Amino acid sequence: MRAARLIRMALLVQSSPGLTADALARELDVSRRTVIRDVQALQEAGVPVRSERGRAGGYHLAPGHRTRLTTLHPTEAETLYLSGLPTALRDLGLSDAADTARLKLSATLLPSLRAAAESSVRRFHLDAPAWFREPSAPRLLPELARAVWSDRTVELAYARPGRDGAPPRTVTRLLEPYGLVLKAGVWYVVGRVPDERTAGRDGAWRTYRVDRVTALAPAPGDGEPFVRDPSFDLAAHWQAHAAGFARALLRTTVTVRLTGTGLRRLPAVADPAGVAAALASASMTAPDAAGRVTLDLPVESEDVAFGQLTELGADVEVLAPAGLRARFREHARALAALYDAVPQGRGQAGGGAAVDQR
């Protein structure tokens, strides 16, 4: 355990000269005191790590020294072959580059390591999209990925879902794209709006679904790359804001009355964040005489709610808003008319053949 940590520390100091004890402690997930002891251990082992004071201080290797602790362990080689999602690389337009990189890596590995790395591909496959969803790459994803790689500010047009059944409206934003996230088969771009950067508010950060980006262009100006905030950590930011982002998508509330069966099936058809909020809300009443429960359900839009709640059939009744209730009423009438009609076609001779009741 400690030997692996010492190797990581030596490689970190080599690749990022000037790291402080606190920075190394964060990278290695240890205490500052442990970092100081590990530096002493490296020095005793002959690795010329030295500490420098001042603004350009931190830990450095002696000039001209390069550690040769770069031999891959079989487990490390296996991990490298698992580090990329095939579908994600394809969506980003990087599958050819990834294939070439793997070939180059294989060519440099010892035969025993090459076999270990290739065996991981035969044993594990990472499938990112959710079930029952045909994966498709957003049209502008590769172009947006290039902007992320090059730190280029972009001007994007985004189709924002309308509220209460209103059609989507397009908004235009300047965005410093910091990173891309693939969540359950859906791509998101995380970035900062330049005009709000100096305001010092968390609201300067924005997350957009890439499949709703309808147009993308370089930002007007000199075309210089934006200066990234060195403290920004994409994984930590996403983890901290994902739950809030999911709740923010739920812009509309519908009031529904559910049977016991409908209540049990609701988590399978509606957004989990909305269901959790509805069940935790004080608006949820005790069951009525028929055993039905009334609750206020946050949803993304009336259109989305219609698509989700129709799956519950007669186990749900929409009480509000009035427009959505009217839509369900028309839907029910259309279904009744369809099933009241005498079926024509296969198995029917003419217009009035009786249906076999056996």
For this entry, give a set of tags:
10 strands; alpha+beta; disordered C terminus; 41% helix; single chain
Please outline what is shown here:
By secondary structure, this protein is α+β, with helices and mostly antiparallel strands. It is built from 13 helices and ten strands. The longest helix has 19 residues, at 322-340.
Task: Describe what you observe in this structure.
Helix 2 (21-28) crosses helix 3 and helix 4 (74-82) crosses helix 7 (111-123). This protein starts with a helix and ends in an 18-residue tail after the last helix. The protein has 13 helices and ten strands. The longest helix has 19 residues, at 322-340. It is α+β, with helices and mostly antiparallel strands and 358 residues long. Strands 6-5-4-3-7 form a five-stranded antiparallel β-sheet. It has a three-stranded antiparallel β-sheet with strand order 9-8-10.
